[in-house]
Fold:
Amino acid sequence: MVNNLSVAVVGATGAVGREMLRLLEDRSFSVSSLYPLASSRSAGAVASWSGQRLAVSDLATFDFEGIDLALFSAGGSVSIEHVPRAVASGAVVIDNTSAFRMDPDVPLVVPEVNISAAKNRPKGIIANPNCSTIQVVVPLEALRRAVGIKKLIVSTYQSASGAGSRALDELSRQAQASLEGREFKPQSFPRLLAFNLIPQIGSFEEDGFTSEEHKMINETRKIMNLPGLRVSATCVRVPVRIGHCAAVHVELNKSLSPEDAREILSAAPGVSVMDDISGNEYPDPLCAAGTDPCWVGRIRKDPALDNGLVFWVAADNLRKGAALNAVQIAEGIFTGN
Structure:
């Protein structure tokens, strides 16, 4: 167990960075000194942590010497440029971007699934998976351990905050413009999101899938150490502020009743079951926002798949989908929690 760590949070003024600061405080992570970092544009701003008001430093000129842990959440290009500097100075880096996720020498970690993988980090980097991938693999791992899985079909419904703080602000402005009958040219999304759905997150690739869908497919295989798992995904942006949801169709190795699945999932770490259709009880983004678990409901047999099961999962994409998962990785490395 390591105490009194020197911690840097890169992207401290963004939505995920602010959540990281909050969680480091709320979870009493062992921090002796904390350094909020951001681009030169945000340098000099003030970040709140543990009753202190800390000046945000410019990442470009920051010296990582003496930093034990660096949490990065400022975009892939920023990580590619500055993560090597942090590692060279001796810091363990947990990176929230896609920059290193598929590097074979960088573990891709969800603590409830594969925290042991974080021990083998030859480049000094641990990657935090995509937000939607995290909330799907947490309950999926419990089913895999119980009976094994063969095939996975996922449709995600991802909130505006998954595209960052600016996108979240733009959703509000889009909605206001739409209600007032004004035109609005979207900047953070490929189309208007207010009162709409966009079946595109990221760029389209040659096979017709988007980059976000490829993340779901490839990251799930890597995290679960199932390189041959058959996975298909459709990722949709929805006009919700915070909270991602997913409909998960899984083909199991053995038949599992919904009742048994509820029991297994209720006992799984990181999962909370909300599943009583007689009382219209099931998770949604509003109930997930501001909470830590992956909320699971609508558990039922899938008649289209052999030994099929389908369930609905909702989670706070800024917490478990990003900041919380990163802090949990750090806890697993440094405190053994």
